[in-house]
Structure formats: structure tokens, C-alpha cells
Amino acid sequence: MASAWSIWPVxxxxxxxxxxxxxxxxxxxxxxxxxxxxxxxxxxGSYAGPPRRMPYCYVVLRSKNHVAMVDVGYNNAxxxxxxxxxxxxxxxxxxxxxxxxxxxxPEDVGTVFITHAHFDHFGNVEAFPNAxxxxxxxxxxxxxxxxxQPERMRFLASAIDPGDLTRxxxxxxxxxxxxxxxxxxDVLPGIDLHLAPDTHSFASIWVRLRNDGRRESQDCWVxxxxxxxxxxxxxxxxxxxxxxxxxxxxxxxxxxxxxxxHASEAMLTAVAYERRRxxxxxxxxxxxxxxxxEVAPGLAISEIxxxxxxxxxxx
Amino acid sequence: xxxxxxxxAARLALKPLFDRLSAxxxxxxxxxxxxxxxxxxxxxxxxxxxxxxxxxxxxxxxRSMTRPPGLAASFEAARRVLPMLGDILTSLEDRPxxxxxxxxxxxxxxxxxxxxxxxxAPEHGLGLVDxxxxxxxxxx
Lengths: 315, 140
Fold this sequence. Notes:
The complex is a heterodimer. In chain A, strand 14 (292-296) and strand 15 form a beta hairpin. Chain A has a single domain (21-305), classed as 4-Layer Sandwich (Metallo-beta-lactamase, Chain A), CATH 3.60.15. Chain A is built from eight helices and 15 strands. By secondary structure, chain A is an alpha+beta fold. Chain B has helices at residues 3-36, 41-63, 72-93, 99-118. Chains A and B meet through strand 2, helix 2, helix 5, helix 6 and strand 8 of A and helix 1, helix 2 and helix 4 of B.
């Protein structure tokens, strides 16, 4: 073991982390963590299982001439105390320190895809001063509706921070926000956005990277947001349409578990049922699936794939 | 009423008001966001009608309360934010037409949020975000 915080995982399948003609490097960056999450939150109804560690992560996609992210984490100044006090979410790290793990600065990020409007994904847009943001229009419109509901319905507005909407309004006023109305192909070269309405949130987005740039890609990755928390939600890590366990949806949703299953099917179809290519950002096992460098509690980088000629950030 | 019971009663009375003020801030921000990003004016009008009703109810609730022991800072934050929200609502009803109007409105929204955040008391359940349905919801 290289250090107390280094884990060298099982090597990836041949040809996967260095796929020919890969346009983007893809890293999952852990910026905080929660130590004991009930298994029933991760797997619907499975409260008999042991609690799990839940990392909080965002994703960086880097091509030769552009840096994009999927989600931006939360603002610790506003929420750190509440999260630590009530939920044991700890070890938050500033994006400047986190992005340095892959040699970047927040100012380098040009595009951000927000998977959903919860505070831990949408809560730190101010840290990325040069980015243009994308979020589903329906996610905003229905969040607004949810906030107008009476007290007895306030579960619908869970995890929505009014401050995030205010900062998003600032982005919109500055022409830095695109509201996504429907699935979008090539929003950046090789990157598609897909809507998953009435799932974990009102209108989550999942991101598909076609890393060979082809329409019928042989090198797809999916950034799942909170549509899954774990590979266990999609039946494990086996490859093949009939491989693995049955899907088991996450336990937390304002939409339906049925829609979560449909979203899982759509994401897996996009990667030809190679389950390790659907990347869950709250998965404690990331370090066992992808090459990972753990720097400190709540601070780690998992290298999902590398662009042609790019240098590894974990070795 | 014993002091402990009084404190619990005060918290129970203040929490719905605090939650409603936070939600009103979010609604105002959402309306402004959609207006800036090309929203539907008719929907915007319906949101504003709903907001106006909730604002009135929040005002009634605040007027019926006395400063709760142990939660004076939270109560004071609510007392300060309510009229700010009234001004913001009126501005939204007048429809901000210029970039300057919009910027000023955003500044007031952020200021109101800061006041409410400073007055929050997570240990008493008074916060800006309800985490009950978040991915971190499971208590450890």
C-alpha cells in the first residue's frame, strides 16, 4: 500500500481505461462523505442491511480544449454545520483543493451539467465563475411549485435550497444558464443529456458521454447523478443484458420507483449493459472499481477513463 | 408551563413560519429565474397569486407570535425578512423590465436569505433546507 490513504484497485478490463481515440478524461472527485447511511436509503426498503459509507462527489470531463463538470457539490459555509450535526456528513473540501487532484482550477470549468436541484449537487455554482450551466426546466418549475405547497406536503421540497434558486436566477440574468426542455444530443461534442422525469427528483438529468465521438458509440459512459446510488441499484457489475441481479431502486424519491427502474434500463441500454460504465457518484465502492487515489477522508479521485495522450492522475 | 415546555412550544410555533419564509424566498427566486430564462408569463402570474396568499398568511402568523425565549435570533430574522419579502413580491408583480431591476431584486433576495440563514437554528429544526428527503436523510 502506497500510503494510509491509497487504494490500488483490481485492474480495469483490458482496453477500457485506455480506449482507442478517447476524447475525454473522466474523473469522479469525492469532496465530502457520510459514514453511516441506512441501507434502506440506498436500496429501497432494505433496512436490514448494514449502514454504508456514502461519498459525495462531482464529475470532471476534460477534453483537449474544454473542461466540463457534472454537478458542483454544496456550499459548506451555509450547510456544513447542519449536515454534520444532523446527518454526519463531514470532511467537506473546497473545489479548489478538490479540482487540483486532476490538475484543474474552478476557473477552468466551462460547462456544468446539473443533474438535479438538490443542495448537494446544485449548491456551489458560485465557485465556478466561468461556467455555463444546464439544468432541466421542469426541475426548476416543479421545485417552484413544490415550495408553494402547504406544510403537510413539504417533503416535496426536500433538499431544495432557496439560495440555490437565487444564485441560479443570477446565472440566468447573466446568460449563463440553459434550461433543458428535452433530451439534447451533442450539447458538447460527444456529450448528450437525457431527462428522467419523476424519479429521484422532479426532472433529473443523466449525462451520456460517447467518448469516441461516434453516434453509434463503442465507448459510452453514463454519469447517473442520483438516479442510482450504487451499482447494487442496477444489479451489480456484471456485463450483459441478462447478467447480474434484478434492479433495485434507491430508497429516496419524489417520483416513483417504477420510473427509477425505467431510467436504469435506459442508462444501461446506452452502455450496452456494461454496468461499470454507469457511474454512481454516491457509491462507496468506486475505489474498488476504478483506479483511485484517496488523499484524505472525504477527498479522493477515481479515474474512470483517460483521453488519448492524457496523463493519469491516480498513479 | 415549565420552561422546557415553553421552549418546545415556541419552537413548534416558529418552525412553520421559518419554513414558509424560506419557501417564499425560493419561490421568488424561481419566478425571477424563469422570467430571466424565458418562462411562461401566465404561470408566473399564478405563482405570484399563490405567493401573495402565503405571504399574507406568514404575516398573520408572525403578528400572532411573541418573541420566543431561546429563539430570539430566529424570531428576529423572521421579523426582518417578512417586509423584505413583501417588497420583493411587489417588485415581481410589477415585472422587472431591465437588467438593473433584476440585479437589484436578486441582491435583495440574497440579503433576505442571508438574514434568515444567520437566524437559523439547525439544532432546533429551524433551517433553510429540509433535508428529510435528501440523499443524506438517514440519521446516523
